[in-house]
Amino acid sequence: MAKAASAGLMSHPQVECAIVEISGDEADLVFHLNCTVTAESDPSDLMETVSHGVISNIERMLGTSFTSRRLHFNRSLYRDTSAR
Q: Among 10, 15, 36, 68, fewest CB within 10 Å belongs to which?
């Protein structure tokens, strides 16, 4: 599921890189996300999508909730100059 979530986030136009990991046992599951967004983007919509879409869908599929969510969003240092 973590690989599928990473792949899904990578298809988002604001995402340059997304790594999802799930750790722990059934009683203590932790959702980890390390995500780099494009320099031009406002990550607030993406953060909402992750919190209320991606994570809740995975919890539904697993049949349990994560006890902890460790979300790290970084902004890319490189601007997309291809639009010029």
A: 68
**What was the pLDDT predicted at 77?**
84
Amino acid found at 72: H
Q: What is the mean pLDDT of residues 36-58?
A: 91
- Considering the entire predicted model, what is its pTM? 0.85
Comparing CA positions, the residue from 37, 19, 47, 43 lying closest to residue 75 is 37
Evaluate whether 17 touches 11 at the Cβ level (below 8 Å).
no
State the SS3 of the chain.
CHHHHHHHHHCCCCEEEEEEEEECCCCCCEEEEEEEECCCCCCHHHHHHHHHHHHHHHHHHHCCCCCEEEEEEEECCCCCCCCC
